[in-house]
Amino acid sequence: MDFEFNNEQRDIQKAVREFAEAEMSREYMLELDRTSTYPADLLKKACDLGFLCIDIPEKYGGVGYGLTEKAIVFEELCRMGAGVGMSLGGSCFGLKVLLNSGTEEQKNRILPRACSGEGLPFSGAFTEPDKGTDIVTFPLGTTAVRKGGKYIINGTKTFITHADISKYVILLCQTDTNAKPSYKGQTTFILENPLDKPGYTVSSFEKMGWQTSHTTQISFSDFELPAENIVGKENQGFYNVMSFLTEFRIETAAAGVGMAQGVYEKAVNYAKTREAFGQKIGKFQSISHKIADMATKIETARLLLYKAAAIFDTKHDVPPHISSMAKWYGARMAVEVADDAMEIFGGHGYIIENDVARFYRDTRMLELVEGTREAQKNTIAASILGRLD
Amino acid sequence: MDIIVCVKRVPDTNEADIQISGNFINTKGLPFDVNEWDKYAVEEAVRLKEKYGGTVTAITIGDSESDDALRRAFATGADAAVRVSDDIFNGSDAVASAKILAGAISDIKHDLVLFGAQASDDGYGATGQAAAAILGLPYASLVIKLEADNGKIRATRELEAGMNEVVELPLPALLTIQSGINEPRYISIMGIRKASSKEIKVLSAGEISVNTAEIGNNSGTKTEKLFLPPVLKQTEFLTGSVDEIAVKLAQILKDKGGTF
Predict the structure, then answer these.
(1) pLDDT digit string (tens) for A25-40?
(2) Whether the predicted pLDDT of B253 surpasses 90
(3) Residues of chain B whose C-beta is under 8 A from some C-beta in A?
(4) Span B60-92, pLDDT tens digits
(5) What are the chain A neighbours of B192 within 8 Å (beta carbons)?
(6) Domain with A35 in it: what CATH number?
């Protein structure tokens, strides 16, 4: 068992770190956050350097590395950017559904555009106003009804990242409302430039943090979609989405490790320079032990993250409970580390310009996206306890 | 134009608490990087290749850990890389290092040889000059702009007091590159991918033209002592009106060599 990155992985880490440290200054990140600006310029630069589609095969315009390398990139972008890093990584949300389940024609047409950045952001529209994690108990409210060579789509999708600007959307719909269980009647589609088309309305939510990505709601009203825009087989959409989310949770774990590392470094630096009661505050055991705990938690989450990524890269699959462990722990750990950093900074942490508050707000989002901590624990518990009927 | 660029892996001592053991910096736990000036030299070499065609070969002295510097050169756009490595090289000073590098350079076809103006670790700023003398190449230092023209190279040099000087050299020539000559590109993932399939040629002392009696521990200089000078805390309170304080402060900065 080797716990070291190989040479290429170290080179990737160094390359992204150099980029992030130069291009994602605190001032710039705060400005993007304050103005709720999507980091389009950074996205273009990151795409030109191959960062975002690092794990898409070369024949589709990517670089052909694995999830481990993707996690390294994501960790570094979130270390400097917190939510801005998540906005960059999240710009590819749903892309892997197309890679895993799309036709060659779809992949050849769309993936190179995505890898160049021109076709980003990508959105994944799965959640509905009354159906978050639970898309299995009842049929989806968003329906796609076949009419000749088209599908007619009606319904509402909510908490959709970037739908106000996205070029492509992977959409999960109910195509067979009589299917038992209902999730066996769900189908994935790809929408291309939907913002230009009738029957597609997007509104945005105000939220607590992660200001550089708009969280939106899409309303479909007799929205027409050519039948060839189906992704994968009809009524297999649920499985496409589940396998994608199981993989993407590992990326979210990487965001957690990266954000925690970033805010931890701020705290360490502060503990080494800030003086109170005649000494550096890092000399107080209440601070130094906090830092030891933060470091231990980050390293624990990182081990879980790279174990999950390594399993995925070796087996092209990962047991859902492993990815759920990496996700919930990575996210929770990041929230706790940001909280500890805030405590070490004291009142200065609450001041925006010190850039601890942004990490504090942005880490909290990680626990809520792609399934809450509770939802992840359901997955883990089910793998241990079974159904217990 | 076939270009050779020499690079060095150095410890990044910027933010670290430096620990000295004997006459060496204790590098355990220190991050390493490519010498800053060498990054500019590699970038300039690759830009010249992209403009005029030809090849770029990166050379370094060191053990396998120095492959980092060569892989970075590959990822920037170098075509070949050579690492000269031998225990007998240990202890080489700047001139001895120049002899080793010249031995490797002389066996490779070249029109232009680039060095960083200095290295951030030992800071001699002499290896490039010495290599030029050993190889018998025309030489210019502290180059901040380069143009090739009909078998010649025109180099702009940075002088003191903000002056520049333009010199013309016949090829082959050797130049040392000043930081700021260009803006080194970010390393791309595509570059790293390409670098991973390229081979680093490793040569020992016996495989290059170098007199082993003149290098390593037989170098001309020997380090007697390496130490951190004691830190002197001097605090001076300036008094008077704001204008008077400003004048006093300006005078102090001027006396201490500060710049405005």
Answers:
(1) 999 999 999 999 999 9
(2) no
(3) 67-68, 71-72, 75, 186-190, 192-193, 195-196
(4) 999 999 999 999 999 999 999 999 999 999 999
(5) 8, 11-12, 15
(6) 1.10.540.10
Single-letter amino acid code for the residue at A385 = L
**Are residue A280 and residue A258 in the same domain, yes or no?**
yes
Of the candidates A107, A104, A85, the residue with the CA atom closest to the CA atom of residue A95: A107
Tell me what pLDDT residue B260 has: 58
For B71, name the nearest residue in chain A, comparing CA atoms only: A11
Domain's final residue, options A235, A253, A279: A235
- The DSSP bridge pattern shows strands B80-84 and B200-203 to be parallel
* Closest chain A C-alpha to B65 CA, distance in angstroms: 10
Q: DSSP letter at B222?
A: -
**CA neighbor of A175 nearest in space, from A138, A134, A145, A131:** A145
A225 and A107: one domain?
no
DSSP B243: H
Cβ-Cβ contacts under 8 Å, B75 against chain A: 11, 15
Tell me: the pLDDT tens digits for B3-37?
Answer: 999 999 998 877 667 788 888 888 888 889 999 99
Q: Note whether A195 and A95 are same-domain residues.
A: no
> Is the model's pLDDT at A277 over the cut of 70?
yes
Quick one: chain B helix, strand, coil %, rounded to 5?
35, 25, 40
Asked if residue A158 belongs to a domain, the reply is: yes
DSSP per position, A326-348: HHHHHHHHHHHHHHHHHHHHGGG
pLDDT in tens, A104-157: 999 999 999 999 999 999 999 999 998 877 888 889 999 999 999 999 999 999
State the catalytic residue, choosing from A128, A247, A251, A370. A370
Contacts of A64 in chain B (CB under 8 A): 193
Instruction: Establish if A2 belongs to a structural domain.
Output: no
Task: Compute CA distances A101 → A185, A230, A249, A284, B70, whole Å.
Answer: 16, 10, 18, 55, 40
Q: Which residues of chain A are within 8 Å of residue B188 when distances are taken between CB atoms? A: 15, 48-50
Number of structural domains chain A divides into? 3
Q: Please report the pLDDT score of residue A1 as a whole number.
A: 81
Complete DSSP assignment for A237-259: HHHHHHHHHHHHHHHHHHHHHHH
Q: Are strands A150-161 and A215-226 parallel, antiparallel or unpaired?
A: antiparallel
Does the distance separating the beta carbons of B188 and A15 come in below 8 Å?
yes
In chain B, where are the structural domains located?
2-218
Give the nearest chain A residue to B34 (CA atoms): A14
Contacts 24+ apart (CB under 8 A), B162-169: B167/B140, B169/B138, B169/B139, B169/B140
Q: Is the pLDDT of residue B202 over 80?
A: yes
Mutation target vs A (from B71, B183, B187, B192; most A CBs, 10 A cutoff): B192
Structural domain of A84? 7-116
Confidence (pLDDT) at B259:
63
pTM of the model as a whole? 0.92
A18 is catalytic: no
Same domain, A243 and A381: yes
- Report the topology of domain B2-218: Rossmann fold (3.40.50)
Percent of chain B with pLDDT over 70: 98
